[in-house]
Design a protein that fits this description.
heterodimer, A: mainly alpha, B: mainly alpha, Formate dehydrogenase/DMSO reductase fold, 15 helices
Amino acid sequence: MSAFWILSLNSWMQTPVGFEVVNGKIMATDWLAILFNPSFPYRFTHMLMASGLTASFVVAGVSAWQVVKKVDSKATHHALKTALVAAAILIPIQIYVGDLHGLNTLKHQPAKIAAMEGVWKTEKGAPIILFAWPDKETKSNLYAIEIPKIASLILTHDPDGEIKGLNEFEGKHPPVAPVFWAFRIMVGMGMLMLLLSWFGVYLLRKRTVNTMPRLYLIALSAMAFSGWIATVAGWYVTEIGRQPYIVYGVITAAETAAKHAPAMIGLTLTAYLALYIFLLISYVLVVKNLSEKPTRGQPPKLPTAPIQKIDAGFASVDSSSRAETAGD
Amino acid sequence: METVLPLIFMGIMGLAMLIYVILDGYDLGVGILLHFAPDDHKDMMVASIGPFWDANETWLVLGVGIMLVAFPAAHGVVLSGLYLPVAIMLLGLMIRGVSFDFRTKAHDARKPFWNRMFAIGSVVAATSQGWMLGSYVSGFRDDWWTWAFNAVIALTVPAAYVALGAGWLIMKGEGELQARAVVWARKAVLPFALGISVVSIATPLISETIYKKWFHLPGFFALLPIPLVTAAAFMALWHVTGKKSIIDAGYGWIAFASTVLVLILATLGLAYSIYPYVVIDRLNVWEAASATSSLVILLVGTLITLPAIIGYTIFVYRIFWGKAQELTYGA
């Protein structure tokens, strides 16, 4: 329900409909059209899938880490399998939904697509750019590695289709480099997710969790936070990609900004960033700390240990299984 | 509709803010007091607010949310005027919220650190809220008198929260913790009362608009019950925290109740002072309101949301009624 309203609101800011401007004020005329605006269904689905993938990779990554650290239990194995299967099912659907979302963006926000693909001038049979350094001075891509015609094929489903370039949106297009890069990070993460989850499911056909290659488990642990990276990168694409507008085509961000001294903005932004970096590091350490504790439900493997020790194991397990409830 | 709807939203917004101050007030107060508590009481103190604290913050979101959608013009003025204290408050609330979870989930050796962060976050949030209130009442002016005024409120609000928090712990705690809470409450009474008095006297001095509303006859006498009942509530608070026999007889809740009464009266006084402005001397309720058609939609939403929030609030307080029990958070 949260996602529904948040994405409905954000989507309206991307593809505003159902309003009229009276004396410089935006007045709603059709609430249903506003709620279910053109980009909403795509963004909503794309985001829910992203959340599912994020959760899957956290669970898979943390479980894999527990196996590597040998603090795993039956529950860890179940969690790992479930998360891998969920990810393997979600990721191809997500890629398909992402493609639909991209086509929708092409229709409503062609400037964003041009920035994402690094298309400076309108061209037919545009290549897909795997890597490049978009240079705003020369308005071209330096060091580009391209595959011909693929961008046109993906976006127009015709290898010679025309893609509008940034030259058609002079002064009305977003900064290219951040959108271009964020898009590649998101897609790159998606591809890694596809590779890792499908390979994992393939492995599970013949092996148990314990006999999975150590290297694979470590790779999976490294991907524990990939969902967040992809999600944040995706939001950068869509939010920076909407610039210079805050409500696309209606109001620019500059028009709505409060008149604070630049130093004030700089100060608070730095404070927020510093706090977030600190919390991010703490968070990763806390997750690591939690994951390395013996999992509940089964005592750590102590086949030859004396009885008291197993008891102690149970005791600590017991206290850890009590009440997650109130914290969240 | 055009006249009444903005007033309804003003009322809901004021109510949300009052409930926020009372509810998040006591848990922020407990957070501040955490710094003064011995280690063996800290878990119990956090457990006493555990089931409630984040639901309490919902009221702030509701209040500010209503301001954004129902009074967009005021939202722009108020939040621009309060930019820095709001930013600092958010930093405090973030640190606090995270510490709440991390203090038991992080490595044991880090627990004292997160306890300290929890107290720091609480005091930062409370102080910046006080500054925000001062700045709002004085109309976002920038001069020495206004800053002094803001500073007094910035110190009064944490004192009020500590009194609330201590009152809460008297109700929720037992034995040594309860005895300690009584001492804390008593220590908070003087700064709290002094703060409220200074603010009450200074507010009409700093704003001519407010002065005119209070000091005219016969209105002054009609308003007299507000300061008088406030004084009585303070006396009750002082009395209860001075007599162990009253606490032992089960009337410890009077400390919390009288603090709440002071805050309700202060809010009433403030609401009377400011009405019909949303931003004093600049924007009144009707000037700041959204289009009537938007307000109608909002009213429908609010009529669904508000009872839901009130419902689960009552529900949660009923479940966790009585003395707090030791809780562990997946430690």
